[in-house]
Amino acid sequence: MHFDVDTYYRYSILEHYRGIELNANTSLVNVLKNNEKRVYIKDLKEKYPSGKENIQKYTAENPKLLVEFRKERRIALPGPMDNFELSESLEIPPPQFQDLISEIRTISSGKECAGQYEAVIEKYFSSVFYPSLTFPEKQTRLHEGRKIVDITYSNTAESGFFKWLSMHYKAPFIFIECKNYSTDPNNPELDQLSGRFSSLRGQFGLLICRKIENKQKLEKRCKDTASDGRGLIIGLDDDDLEIIADAELSNENKQLFSYLKEKFDKLVM
Q1: CATH of the domain at 146
Q2: CB-side exposure of 168: number of CA atoms within 13 Å?
């Protein structure tokens, strides 16, 4: 029952008052760089503290909250928190996706910076794609080390593109290959990534590049790979990563990744 009270306070009472603060545009409202308005949990907790007497008072003032909470609890428990909910819960600053994009763009292309580029790409995906992609592993070794994947993620999505992907295709793991050079990737790069797929590991991967000049040509090559039954690959460059990060910041439906869904549709339609 203690867990239920805490959950009721966090997800019903505080969310109710968050809506009130947002609608009234009070001093608790913070405006982000993209003009999105947010009210942080730590500020709500200060204005609407917990405790038995306080919770009884909030419920007496808003009796529908408890009724709706009990109804929802019969249906489902809350899913995993996204980055912003987690930062609010821990009372730490939210992730700065644009800082990650800036860090990516400052890295020079070329073999000498490949390790640095791979490390920042891992930071980017671990932040922007959490909690859909978790348990990152760099330099994953397959076939007793004869094959290596730059970055591997477990697909733990409960909503959005990666959930849909897991329902219709083999995708328990998501494979990422990083190519830190300025020329467009060709068939050898696609063959390298598709060679990491299997019926057990999964059939989906992302080829991350610095700049793809001829995106239509790469999309055709990716479609050829898919048509040949050698796996599903989407190529992304620095500009694509920024588009995805911006969408995640502005979209109320977190982890949707509609941009990836649009690119995926081109592979199979």
Answers
A1: 3.40.91.30
A2: 11
DSSP type of residue 202: B
Residues 6+ apart with CB under 8 A from 226: 232, 233, 267, 268
Q: Which helix (H) or strand (E) holds 203?
A: none
Tokens of 110: 């070329």
d(CA 96, CA 37): 15
End-to-end CA distance of the chain: 50
- Token duo for residue 17: 């008052």
Per-residue pLDDT band at 17 (split at 50, 70, 90): very high
What residues make up the domain containing 41? 2-78
CA–CA distance, 260 with 162 (Å, rounded to integer): 9
Q: What is the rounded CA–CA span in Å between residue 99 and residue 87?
A: 16
Percentage of the chain lying above the pLDDT 70 cut: 87
Amino acid found at 3? F
Tokens 């590991």, located at residue: 201
Average pLDDT over residues 90-104: 78
CA–CA distances in Å: residue 165 to residues 36, 61, 131, 140: 29, 44, 15, 22
The answer as to whether 86 is a domain residue is no
pTM above 0.90, yes or no: no
Domain co-membership, 150 together with 213: yes
Q: At 148, give phi and psi (nearest 5°).
A: -130, 135
CA distances from 175 to 43, 106, 130, 137, 195 (A): 39, 24, 15, 10, 11
